[in-house]
Amino acid sequence: MNKIRLLCILHVPPPHHGAAKVGEFIRNSHVINETFECRFIPIRSSDTIADIGKVNWKKLYFVIELYLKVLWVLIMFRPDKIYFTASIRSVAFYRDLLISTLWKSYRYLASVEIFYHYHTKGVDEFVSASARNLALTRFFLRDIRLILLSPMLSQDFRKIDTIQDISYLPNGVENTLSEREFNQICDRRYDPSKSTIHALYLSNMIKSKGYFDVLKAAIALKNNNIHFHFAGEWQNENDRGEFFETITQHDLHNVTFHGFINGAEKQKLFEQSHLFIFPTRYPNEAFPLSILEALSYGLPVLSTDEGSIPYILDNQCGIIVENLDNLLDGLKMALNQFMNLETSQYCRDRYMQNFTLQQFEKNLVRTLNA
Fold it and tell me: Which residues pair with 42 in a beta bridge?
């Protein structure tokens, strides 16, 4: 029996962000590759977080390259299904709009199902800005099978009436621990001979993602037994300079910056931490993988009600603040309620039941075959 031919056009690192990490997993997934006959075309645009949203000649070259690659694969491979990681606005939207004309034309020659997977939010804001944006987005999404990260994001498409249907596919992250290893981590984490609490911010160092709000909390709790760890890639040098100037100005001996980390370094940081703090107000925040990673290591989470975060967390594994002015109060509440073995086990169980890569694979296959 011939396999269904699947063309995947998706983001992969670099840079390292949620959509790219998910794209890399899909490309390397044995389940996806065994279920379908696959072709993968990476979307190349930005090399670093700082490059996102900027226009240059290199990006124009990438657009032309992508257009020609998609055209060639459509002609030679003749896919039955197309999976595409879609963008919201700016130059990336117009790039996607241009590329979409290829499969919209291909539909006149062959039967094909087209899936757009959105890893971000902001469509409603974009289409509300002008009648042109609304008309173009309706055209872009006409007769498309939409994949969203959670039902909480469906309102973002309330003005789009051209979509064929919507499916919901929560993200997943790799389980790097056996249960034995997890129990050993908890034994070390709650060793009564250790009095210091370790709080972790791990994401791109973008101000709207909340790292500076965590730094303010570090200032307020400078003389308490809590150490703050930061890890991530900087968006720009001005933010980097301000961060370290603030540390020096306030003599923050309770702060460590680890830079961009991955692999064993990241695992070690999760293992030694007690609490994950992610007070994001990033406009496109939809379903942060970093929160899923924290839960997989048994870390309770202090975050905001941005995007699908309330879908991921409940009141037994996280505290959600609606106003960042209340972040310090939320942090104190988390330190009072969540620093125990039972909470760590609950966080781990919530991850295992809902957000593993195996569940994501299974759900993606089911969505593409629906």
Answer: 10
Residue 48 has pLDDT above 80, yes or no: no
CB within 8 Å of 248: residues ≥ 6 apart: none
Together in a domain, 305 and 323: yes
Longest CA pairwise span in the chain (Å): 70
Q: Measure Cα distances from 25 to 19, 84, 345, 364 in Å.
A: 10, 14, 26, 12
Q: Which residues of 5-43 are buried (b: 16+ CB within 10 A; e: fewer)?
A: bbbbbbbbeebbbbbbbbbbbbbebeebeebbebbbbbb
CATH code: domain of residue 245: 3.40.50.2000
Same domain, 220 and 154: no
pLDDT of residue 44: 84
Mean pLDDT of the region 150-167: 97
95 and 219 fall within a common domain: no
Mean pLDDT of the chain, nearest integer = 94
List the alpha helices (DSSP H) in the chain.
18-28, 30-35, 57-77, 90-106, 123-128, 131-140, 179-189, 211-220, 237-249, 263-272, 289-296, 309-312, 327-337, 341-354, 357-369
> 102 and 239: one domain?
no
Res. 358: pLDDT tops 70? yes
* 3-class DSSP state of 210: coil
Q: How far apart are CA 166 and CA 162, in angstroms?
A: 11
Residue 117 backbone phi and psi in degrees, to 5: -110, 115
Task: Please give the tally of structural domains in the chain.
Answer: 2
Q: Provide the pairing of β-strand 145-148 with 318-321.
A: unpaired
User: Which structural domain range is residue 195 located in?
Assistant: 179-354
What does the pLDDT look like over 233-291, one tens digit per residue?
998 999 999 999 999 999 999 999 999 999 999 999 999 999 999 999 999 999 999 99
